[in-house]
Amino acid sequence: MKITIVSGGASKRTICELELSTSTTIKELKKSFAQKNPKYYVDRQRFVTSQLGPDNKPIVLSDDNKTLSHYKITSDNTLVFKDLGPQVSWTTVFLTEYAGPLLIYPIFYFFGQQIYGQEYTHGYTQQYALLCYSLHYIKRLLETIFVHRFSHATMPISNIFKNSIYYWGNTILVSYFVNHPLFTSPPPARVLIGLCLWVVGELFNLISHIQLRNLRPAGSTVRQIPKGLLFEYVSCPNYTMEILAWIGFSIMTQTLTAYVFTVLGAVQMYVWAVAKHRRYRKEFDGKNGELQYPRNRKIIVPFLL
Amino acid sequence: MAGLVKKYLFLYNIVQFGGWTYILYLLAAHFHAGGWSSQSLIGVWQHVGWWVTLFQFGAVLEIVHSLVGFVKTPVATTFVQVFSRVACVTLAILVPTTNDHWAMSLMLTAWGITEVVRYLFYALSLYDAVPYILGWLRYTLFIILYPSGVTGETGTIIASLPYVKETGLWSITMPNALNVSFNLYYTLIGSLAFYVIGLPWLYTYMLGQRKRFIQSGGVTKKPATSSVTSSPSSAKKQN
């Protein structure tokens, strides 16, 4: 059958025509489109139907492994092409945004004399904070390289700038105050409590990431219901534990900017967690032989939220 | 758009239009009384400050409109616009050295003319009733008013600097229990950089809008929104 690809927007200009069959997968569709339009490599493409779906919106051909017939395209048809813009791999984005904090944070520690214009020695809290902050980002870098398996290969290139500005700016604003010569440490007991929370958070965050990795066989984008340990209570324990680690860091350093970024991070992670929780529930709805997602599992806070 | 929301927005824009018309009238009366000389710039803030404060702080509602989805303007855009204005008004209230400065008169006059045209334009466009001349003014006056407004605002900020430095206004110094410090003096100097970056950007944007307006023969249709163009999930982080 003949599939006509048109551009989006008002113009609906014909880009090309492809000869495909009903059993052609979306991935193959994208490959044949890329052959004719090499500028738009597979990850840059998105297709939607020209006819509106049941909710009066075009249907997005989102699953690369599904066939055209799955999306009810069984005869000559028109699809709308959308350019997602230049893409960059998740790994590149992660490495760039995490390298910043790892390099920037210690600058305020080791060059404090030049930055603050006075000689001073660091207290133990400042030493622990340097260790915690650096270890956190070293862990993230290592996880990106050795642990994570991403379901999407790429994201738009603008994300690299947006994310980097956030991470780098965040680091400058936290590091400047924590490493300040006039820094006031909270009492030892609170430093210890913060440090303990940080260790627990980081440890279980790592464990959750490894559990997630083991759900997805190498080279695939298979989705399964995560199980075991904290996953029995919440859908995204990796976020729960990351938030806990930052709460620990904030208690330990008792610095306003650290608290502010803990809250901002928690809000963002909550939004992601809600989306992921919904996806799990939709995907494992217990119908058509699919598994049923555990009903009592919360989003991010055990038993509560 | 729901009928009630539309009525409310119309009312809001008309009230703002009325407020800024009155402010513009007060300004003109003040300059007139001073014989349009440099002497007439003295006492401008004392004369109109209360009304400017009322209507400019009232514009904080526009952030709310954007947040709850009454208007399509992105929250961030509205926030930056309203925040910079409110910050300048706050400086005028707190820093006496800004009040009789020429930049204050320039700033208020540029704001006044801009807002009178803008709010009437918004109000009428709700009912697709914008006369060509009003649209033309909206997309033409900025050529002069933007640079004037920015000169006025940055001039006001600069006029406040010595006073802010001397009094340590709103500054927080370490050590303190939250390990935080704030220096309004340097923050203000830093904010000047945003004007330098922001003006050319906004100016080019508005020139583009103007071109579109002239070419379309004065049709001020809102841009069509498409549900297809919403960002794909791949743009979000998932780990």
From TrEMBL, chain A:
Uppermost EC category: oxidoreductase
Annotated keywords: Endoplasmic reticulum, Fatty acid biosynthesis, Fatty acid metabolism, Lipid biosynthesis, Lipid metabolism, Membrane, NADP, Oxidoreductase, Transmembrane, Transmembrane helix
GO cellular component, one term: endoplasmic reticulum membrane
EC number(s) given by UniProt: 1.3.1.93
Residue runs in coiled coils: none
Transmembrane segments: 165-183, 189-208, 229-252, 258-275
GO MF terms held by the record: very-long-chain enoyl-CoA reductase activity
Entry membrane topology: Multi-pass membrane protein
Ubiquitin-like domain: residues covered: 1-81
Family according to the record: Belongs to the steroid 5-alpha reductase family.
Pathway assignment: Lipid metabolism; fatty acid biosynthesis
Entry's Gene Ontology BP terms: very long-chain fatty acid biosynthetic process
Localization per Swiss-Prot or TrEMBL: Endoplasmic reticulum membrane
One Pfam family here: Steroid_dh
Protein name: very-long-chain enoyl-CoA reductase
Gene that encodes it: gpsn2
From TrEMBL, chain B:
Protein's UniProt keywords contain Transmembrane: yes
Residue ranges of the TM segments: 9-28, 48-68, 75-96, 139-164, 184-203
Domain of life: Eukaryota
EC number of this enzyme: 4.2.1.134
Chain spans, region Disordered: 220-239
PANTHER family named in the record: VERY-LONG-CHAIN (3R)-3-HYDROXYACYL-COA DEHYDRATASE
Similarity section: Belongs to the very long-chain fatty acids dehydratase HACD family.
Protein name as it appears in the record: very-long-chain (3R)-3-hydroxyacyl-CoA dehydratase
Organism the protein comes from: Cavenderia fasciculata
